[in-house]
Amino acid sequence: MRVSLLQQNIDTGLSITSRIVQPTNSLPILGNILVLAKKGMVELQATNLELSVRYNLPAKVEEEGSCSLPARLFFDIIHSLNEDKIQLTSNKDNIILRTDGFEAEMNGLNASDFPQIPQITTKNTITLPLEVFVSSVEEILPAVSIDESRPILAGVLVNITNQQLLLAGTDSYRLAQNTLPIKSSEDISVIVPASTLSEVIRVASILSPEEVTIQLSETEIIFELGQAQIISQLIEGQYPDYKKIIPESSTTHVVLEKKELIRAIKIASLFSRENAHSIELVVDAKELVINSKASDIGTNSSKIPAKVSGNPISINVNARYLLDAANAIKKDTLQLSFTDKLEPCVVKPEGKYHSEYIHIIMPLRS
To answer: 351 lies in which domain range?
Structure first.
């Protein structure tokens, strides 16, 4: 293998691919990045067997070939260089890296031992504007469980049916659901690890393509983001039947400014830490009052002007959950809906939105 490429290009590629490499893995090859030189381009590959990344970058390929290099060392060297052009030349399993003022030889492993990244052939392919997709996922992720002992709840339900893409996440105490209109030929329902979606958002922030293309099979999902592909295994199992907890209607609706709600929750949280983060929401004719107390600190009460319709109500919720819900929504104005002190609180953007989004928070017993 003998290739020449720009430092900026390969630095970007390594910043994307090296992130998922696990150097402490029992398989040494998984601590490496695969470099493939072919037909005027270099492809970088990395995998931890559950999540894989491909990245293509332009290069002058004088001799095709492949090598497998230690991810951390490779990235650190490339990132430290300030020369524009870099030449990579293979020496058996090793690579000689040269610039005008620098030369190094890195010990590699046999490229043939690198795990093969899955390819998907499926009709289940959809394309969405990247901004819409990322925003929709960011609204879901706060509700997803971080408890790996329940793998299904550590994933996001991705359901394609009736020309709609539904995303849902829950940790049993809260639920977020988003629905987007799409063009799709086949219906499918899968569970995608939340960690995969977080990686998609990270890569998207680096590359900023206009669209994301998603390919789905029964066992894998691929996200295409310009020059990058993120390939992930899916979570096996049946997602909980969460829809029965979504209220069909509400008797009280409160519309208010997001920044005012966030400010009041943050203050209330200072007094609610020893009380399981419990805060009281009190709705009257013209405002929302947020109360919290701690026996060793004191009490606090914040009043937020609001547009209220329906009956007065008092309900206790987890402050952290309500804050996560408010922060996830991109609009400046929110709507809170209630039915009873023992029924879920519904949080959603006020007015029209690019998707149908709701966030459900289960109440706490006072």
So the answer is: 246-361
Residue 119 within any structural domain of the chain:
no
Q: Which SS3 state, helix, strand or coil, does residue 120 take? A: coil
Helix or strand or coil: residue 69? Answer: strand
CA 271 – CA 275 distance, rounded (Å):
8
pLDDT, mean of residues 121-138: 91
Among candidate residues 291, 207, 204, 310, the one with its CA nearest the CA of residue 249 = 310
Helix H or strand E segment including 189 = strand 188-193
Q: Which residues pair with 34 in a beta bridge?
A: 45, 68
Residue finishing a domain among 227, 244, 261: 244
Give the pLDDT band of residue 185 (cuts 50, 70, 90).
Answer: low
Contacts (Cβ under 8 Å, ≥6 apart) of 345: 281, 315, 317, 322, 336, 337, 338, 360, 361, 363
What's the domain count of the chain? 3
User: Do 130 and 238 belong to one domain?
Assistant: yes
Which domain CATH number covers 153? 3.10.150.10
pLDDT digits (tens, 9 = 90+) for 64-112: 999 999 999 999 999 999 889 999 999 999 999 999 999 999 999 999 9
Task: Give residue 69's Cα distance to chain centre.
Answer: 28
The pLDDT tens digits of the residues spanning 194-229 come to 999 999 999 999 999 999 999 998 899 999 999 999
Same domain membership, residue 269 and residue 313: yes
Residue 366 lies in a domain: no
Q: Is 186 exposed, middle or buried (0-12, 13-18, 19+ CB in 10 A)?
A: exposed
Q: Which residue has the tokens 């009052």?
A: 289
Phi-psi group of 93: left, alpha or beta (phi > 0 → left; psi -120 to 50 → alpha; rest → beta) = alpha
SS3 10: helix
Q: Give Cα 356 to chain centroid, integer Å.
A: 19
